[in-house]
Amino acid sequence: MEERYYLTLERIMKITEENTVKEPYQSYFRHVAEFLLRIHDIKDSRHTSARASMTKERLEEEMQMLYYDVLPQNYETSYANPEYAVRELGEELGAFLSALYTELRGDIGYVYEERYDYIVIGNELFIEIYNKFEEEETPSPESLKEIFYWYASDYCDVYAADRVVEQIDPEAYDFAVKRIMESDLTDLRYLYRFGEYVSENELKTAEYLNSLPQETIDKMADTYTEGFRVGFINTGKDLSKKSVVNIRYVLGFERVVRKAIQNFEKMGLKPTIYRAASSVITRPRLGKNGFYGGIPNKQYDYDHKDDLGLVLDKQFMERKLEVMRTVLEKNKELAGSFAGPAVMEVFGEKPFAPVTKTEAVTFSKKQEELLLIMNSRAGQITNQYIKGEERSFTIISWPLPEIGNNYPEIFDEVIRINTLDANVYEKVQQTLIDALDQGEYVRIFGKGANKTDLKVSLCRLKNPEKETIFENCVADVNIPVGEVFTSPMLEGTEGVLYVSKVYLNELQYRDLEIHFKDGKTTEYTCSNFESEEENKKYICDNIMHNHESLPLGEFAIGTNTTAYMAAKKYDIADKLPILIAEKMGPHFAVGDTCYSWAEDNVVYNPNGKEIIAKENSVSACRKENPEQAYFQCHTDITIPYEELGKISVFTCEGKEIVLIENGRFTLPGTEILNEPLDK
């Protein structure tokens, strides 16, 4: 591998000096080659005393150079921007060459991890593409895409295979764990040694956490890890059979993660922490899965979300799925010991409204269908080896400094929200559930400009003494405390769901409106763009995940009025993650139910009643046709209390039980939830 590396390096050096390719392509190749040489410079100095003694200012300067092309102030004239690449390199080749550059930019993470085999593979791809331009004055897009296709296909058994192993084997990849456990976290230079972009958010987060007493750090970590442990208890799963937990977090929280690792080890769980994927072979369409730093430019990520469209066909799909299946079979003992993910999310960034660029790579309709099939089958394969009935998870969220000048106050408030007394909420929420269990359906009305008018059908209880419809959600897998939820019956569920402004999966929606008939979406719109076509495509891509229709997978009532008032006090409602926002009013999930892949597991509420509403008429066909039963998406949409007119449950006898009216809880026994509203 070392010999291959230096052979590619020698060739890349020559590319920066020669003029064997016609313009404007030579300029492109020279620019990318210079980037690859900067990667080599870092490799060459990785273990030198000079690098060890580099100042924070010098490390910052180096990082800025690595990310220069994608920073917003430089992006307009960057080859990483498909719009600029098409303008400079032509319509036929520009988008492809922009995607190629994006693929190679993954080297930043690889060089810090010392994954030189990945760098060699990328270098060889770059040289092969360059050689094509030397052989032909203007190669055909098809010939270039063919080279890229076989790169992606051939190296599935490297990138895709490693991604599977990184999740389940603590011994296979320990880069991040070592950094977290061995670094001096009081010296913020450590942040620059992950190979991620370090923004003010990461620096100020780490700085603020360093100012907190160990007691507070312990409290934060304990809430997070205890939620994971309790998730196993509440679902009747045996944690003692597990030995691995996957930690996912954002740079800056290392002090909390270090304590969490220690807590998990006391439970008998070793951590895996892998970097969010950068290769087209492994990265998800939207969002990041793993550890990552600051996002230098969300528009850049959005522009390249569909680069997989360069290679996705049935053959590639089968190749990737086979690699996944083979690796899991080879490591089935490790897979069986995997307990699940423990996720630390962040919030507070300025809402991002993406620009859709026609120059970017996009999926064809056939590829959209293939992507859905691939994701569904990948889920089935995973569930075969990492069984849903044996694993759990937990998610907690923390604010970033970008949230505003009151960041320390907001952070302390979120600590309070995340550590509320679950016992109090359990009792109050049970009162709500007792009323809901009497119901045939629930009616939800908006207030003022909110157009919500929705009827949600409920599952019928056969044995009310032993069964329940709604789950009493306390502070376990889904932190903070504060909701009751169910899988509604689709038949009879109809109406319109509306919310004036909501932030979903890091994207903002204005005047979001979704219509349902028999529990399935029929039409949708928003007001983000001037054209209705753009609005619908935006929702189709990012909420519907390109499904023609999705069922209503969840109906819930949030009870965390403390979080609601904190959002009002600090004017951060539009910046809160769905994890907290869903606890601040009724919410509705389009897509899979909360019990996907685990419908047959017996689940009880704290009062001992079995939860029976775990499937709907779509997920019920999972055994015969799982590809039609599951959609691999679940998007929660919350109506805030101030937009809420009324929620009532109607019994089979036609009796109306009012739960909430004008944003206040009216059901006897739930009045305590109004106390934060009165302060």
Task: Describe the fold and architecture.
- By secondary structure, this protein is α+β, with helices and mostly antiparallel strands.
- The protein folds into three domains: 2-154; 170-398, no CATH class; 420-678, no CATH class.
- It has 26 helices and 19 strands.
- The strands form four sheets. An eight-stranded antiparallel β-sheet has the order 12-11-10-6-5-17-18-19, with helices on one face. A five-stranded antiparallel β-sheet has the order 8-9-13-14-16, covered by helices on one side. A four-stranded parallel β-sheet has the order 2-1-3-4, with helices on both faces.
- Helix 1 packs across helix 2 and helix 17 (314-330) runs parallel beside helix 19 (365-385).
- It is globular and about 85 Å long.
- The model has no long low-confidence stretch (mean pLDDT 94).
Present the secondary structure layout.
Layout: H1 2-15, H2 25-45, H3 49-52, H4 56-66, H5 72-75, H6 82-89, H7 91-104, H8 107-113, H9 116-135, H10 141-154, H11 156-168, H12 175-182, H13 200-211, H14 214-234, E1 244-248, H15 254-266, E2 270-272, H16 298-303, H17 314-330, H18 332-336, E3 338-347, H19 365-385, E4 394-399, H20 407-418, H21 422-436, E5 439-446, E6 453-457, E7 467-468, E8 471-473, E9 483-486, E10 489-504, E11 507-517, E12 520-525, H22 532-542, E13 552-558, H23 561-570, H24 578-581, E14 586-591, E15 610-611, H25 626-629, E16 634-638, E17 644-651, E18 656-661, E19 664-665, H26 675-678
Parallel strand pairs: 1-2, 1-3, 3-4, 7-15
Antiparallel strand pairs: 5-6, 5-17, 6-10, 8-9, 9-13, 10-11, 11-12, 13-14, 14-16, 17-18, 18-19
